[in-house]
Structure formats: C-alpha cells, structure tokens
C-alpha cells in the first residue's frame, strides 16, 4: 500500500506470483534446470539431529516420538540470551539436539559451544524432568524452511499434554499504534495465545491490527491448528543487536507457571548478563 | 489441508455440500482480500476451520473482526475458513503471500478441497493492474467477470441481464499476430491459473475482478463487493439508499492504521 507520509516503503508484489516466476514455470524445465532446482532445494533442507541418549546419535529421525510436556522456544539473539541468563546452565540441562541449516542470511554453527552472537539452533532437555524441552534459535529460519522446521521438530514429540511458550523480539517500528512509536516507552512485551491456552499471560495481549510473522508465527499457527496450548511473548525493542535492556524486558515471564520452577540463581543471571555485555562490546568495537 | 476448529458446530459445520465458496486471489492492491474481509465482517460469519498449508507465509494476529473485548482474543492465522449456513456460503480468507514456487501446489490443494467438499461453485474475487488496460478498457466500467463453461451454462444469461462486461482476451503476440487471443490477468496472482484449472476440471467458478492500482484500495474493495452483490445479493440494498449501498458493508476493526502510526508531536 502507498503511504501518504513520504516514507519509502518497499512495495512487495501484491500479485503473489512474480510475472518472472510464472514465465519461468511456463517454460519447459530442462534436465539441467531440474538438477539445479533439486540441488538448491537440498541445500536449503534443514536437518534436525537429536542426541537423545547421551553419546548415541539418533540421526534426524527419532525412533519413537518422545514425550514432551513443556516446550520453550526462544527465537532471536535476545530471547536466546534471556534463557541463557535466567534458565539454562550446564548442570541441570543437557544438549539433546541441533538444527543445521543454510540460507542467504545465515549458516548455523556446527558446535554446541556457541557465543551469544553466533547463529545457532540448539535443543536442551532438563535432566531432572526429561519431558521439559528448551530451544534457542538465534539463526534466521527462512520462509521456505519454517514449515520444515515445524514438521521435523514437532514431528518428534508426543503432543498429548504439551504446552508451548515462545519468546521472540521484533523492532518497535513495526508496532502499529495510534500514537507515534517514538514516544512509546520500549522495550515492552505483548502476548498472543492459542485457544487452548487457559493460563494467565504476563503482559497485555497484542492488539489488532498488529501481526506476528516468521518462525514465531509458524510455531503459534501450528499450535492453534492442532489444539496445543501455546503462548507467544513478543518483545518490541528499538535495539537490533544483543542488548541487556531488551533481555531484561522478558523478566515478567519468570513468574509464569511454566518458567517459575526453572529459574536459576539470580546472582548467576547477573554474572551472565554482565558477561554478555562485555562480549558484545568487544565484538562491536572497531577501535582497539 | 482443511482442518476444522471445534467451535461447537461439530462435523456439521464443515459440511459444505452445495455451498458457494468465496475466496480472494492475492492480487494488486489486495482488493480481493479486502473485499472478503467486508463479506466476513458484514455477514458476521463464524470461523469453522483453518486451511493449513506450507505454501503461504506464516502470520498470526488477534481476531481481525473483533467487535468487543470478549471476542478480540481469538487467534487468527494466514488462511481461515468461515461459514454462514443460512445463506449456504463458505469463505476462505488468505492473509499472506505465497512462498516462492509454492503457488502451483497451493492451487492443486485448493481445487482438490473444493471438489472433495462438494461446493456447488466458487467465486474468486481478484484485481488486475489498471495500467495494463488498453484504450477500450480505459473507458467504462473497471469491473470484469469470467465464468467457467460449467457455470456459464447455469448463469450465463444473468450476466447479460446485469449488463456485465466479460474480461477481454488479448493478443498472444501483439503487433505480430492479432488473431490468437489469450487470457491475461496481470497483477492477478493465481487468478488465471485457478480459472484455467477450474475450466479443465469442470468446476463452476466465477471470477470477479477490478482494474486498480496500489494505493488506498478500500474504495476498490467496496466497488468489488457491490459488484458481487448485484449478482448474489448477499446483503439487501436499502431502497432509500440505492445510490450508495457501500454504507451497508461493515469495515472490520482491523482496518485501522493502514497508512502508518500517528505522527510524533515533535515533528511540528
């Protein structure tokens, strides 16, 4: 849509089908074209590698779906860092899975020893209760990979008494409101929940006409369609990189039913947050 | 695939035998989608299910047709099905564009669903680039229709009575050979594909479209639903207000802030 305020807006193709794309498809596909397309599709395939039994790799297809009662997904660097600071530690949690993917925006790290600024997607399980699964996904999962991610991750779980919590961030400039976003005190949290989710949410619900996109939307849509209780906490922030103020904006969630029992020692959290700050500064400092 | 939501209707709420299916094509100005929003909002239709697919970009938001606090918290996704059994109407609303290379599989899935659910006919609301009109199309009404042969047999005469204009075919090789004509709907998204597939599959489909450009497309949406109403009379035109039936269509609450947020006071 055009805007009247002189902003430059990228007008995506409303046609839904690029004229180029339809012309391309109308042409007979040569064996070469087919080969190229297959290679590209293979390159963009995502692999979910589970190591459910320590040491033994179950490959990308679990033998049997595992029982999952709580699934907490943090999408984006700040959400992932929030879980690192306040929930995760190497004593109570073990790595049980990793996603390997490639797209134009990122390639995931191969290691599980990752920096907060790396692109990675890791799954952790609570040792004392193996039905609690946590995912930190700080890599960008492209449009054509989101469905694959859903099928490969949720496909491995038994969903009978599953509850899902999603944490993500997005720019405050995307927030639609009567006032200007310049005067809004950010960061702030907004929530969306599926029909089956009956618990209290920790912040106001996201009002119309705001929407959520990308992987958080894909996960929440999946949960809505398949009747899984789920809640998404979206943090609107004006900082695009790793930032402690944004991370701390998720703190109200620590009193929620799902996270209350998982919170670790507060002093630990402060130490980790401080460490994050220094790592961040070193990486972003172009002056010695 | 169609997934019913258990909204209390039971299996009866997903029985569309003999119903008319309305759906938009994601096209220039989003006119089809805006028009469908008006239909759902005005007729106060109930959501009966989701069209769960990997072909559309994911999105979620709260109920776009909320009228009060109580009904504002229902989650909506990118493709949903609404119905109004009293008028034998079912509507598919699509809220996001296609993922690259996925529009063909979507058309296949959609048309199989139409056949399996035994809908009597499909009405596709769409639009086409106004700048691609030829000299003749620049004059007169910007609204056009198309009917598949199966629907033509049933209602073709009615279109003549309404004085509607059929979408013109254009030369396949303009300037070189003007005799071979093809259907060309620039900016219409999957309109042409759905129409040609429906023709070959024996589906009764009508396409109603408007020539328009990107911009404030709300008036285009109103024009398109009024055009639809001339034929199917979804809402009664008020005889006192016959010159402006647009006041009877209800804009959904989600049509706010279409042109951006409020301005920062510091600007002035």
From TrEMBL, chain A:
<keyword id="KW-0256">Endoplasmic reticulum</keyword>
<keyword id="KW-0143">Chaperone</keyword>
<feature type="region of interest" description="Disordered">
    <location>
        <begin position="13"/>
        <end position="35"/>
    </location>
</feature>
<dbReference type="Pfam" id="PF16094">
    <property type="entry name" value="PAC1"/>
</dbReference>
<feature type="compositionally biased region" description="Basic and acidic residues">
    <location>
        <begin position="24"/>
        <end position="35"/>
    </location>
</feature>
<comment type="similarity">
    <text>Belongs to the PSMG1 family.</text>
</comment>
<dbReference type="GO" id="GO:0000502">
    <property type="term" value="C:proteasome complex"/>
</dbReference>
<comment type="subunit">
    <text>Forms a heterodimer with psmg2.</text>
</comment>
<keyword id="KW-0647">Proteasome</keyword>
<comment type="function">
    <text>Chaperone protein which promotes assembly of the 20S proteasome as part of a heterodimer with psmg2.</text>
</comment>
<dbReference type="GO" id="GO:0005783">
    <property type="term" value="C:endoplasmic reticulum"/>
</dbReference>
<keyword id="KW-0963">Cytoplasm</keyword>
<protein>
    <recommendedName>
        <fullName>Proteasome assembly chaperone 1</fullName>
    </recommendedName>
</protein>
<dbReference type="InterPro" id="IPR016565">
    <property type="entry name" value="Proteasome_assmbl_chp_1"/>
</dbReference>
UniProtKB/TrEMBL annotation, chain B:
<comment type="function">
    <text>Chaperone protein which promotes assembly of the 20S proteasome as part of a heterodimer with PSMG1. The PSMG1-PSMG2 heterodimer binds to the PSMA5 and PSMA7 proteasome subunits, promotes assembly of the proteasome alpha subunits into the heteroheptameric alpha ring and prevents alpha ring dimerization.</text>
</comment>
<dbReference type="Pfam" id="PF09754">
    <property type="entry name" value="PAC2"/>
</dbReference>
<keyword id="KW-0597">Phosphoprotein</keyword>
<dbReference type="GO" id="GO:0005634">
    <property type="term" value="C:nucleus"/>
</dbReference>
<keyword id="KW-0539">Nucleus</keyword>
<protein>
    <recommendedName>
        <fullName>Proteasome assembly chaperone 2</fullName>
    </recommendedName>
</protein>
<dbReference type="InterPro" id="IPR019151">
    <property type="entry name" value="Proteasome_assmbl_chaperone_2"/>
</dbReference>
<dbReference type="InterPro" id="IPR038389">
    <property type="entry name" value="PSMG2_sf"/>
</dbReference>
<keyword id="KW-0647">Proteasome</keyword>
<comment type="similarity">
    <text>Belongs to the PSMG2 family.</text>
</comment>
<dbReference type="InterPro" id="IPR016562">
    <property type="entry name" value="Proteasome_assmbl_chp_2_euk"/>
</dbReference>
<dbReference type="GO" id="GO:0000502">
    <property type="term" value="C:proteasome complex"/>
</dbReference>
<comment type="subunit">
    <text>Forms a heterodimer with PSMG1. The PSMG1-PSMG2 heterodimer interacts directly with the PSMA5 and PSMA7 proteasome alpha subunits.</text>
</comment>
<keyword id="KW-0143">Chaperone</keyword>
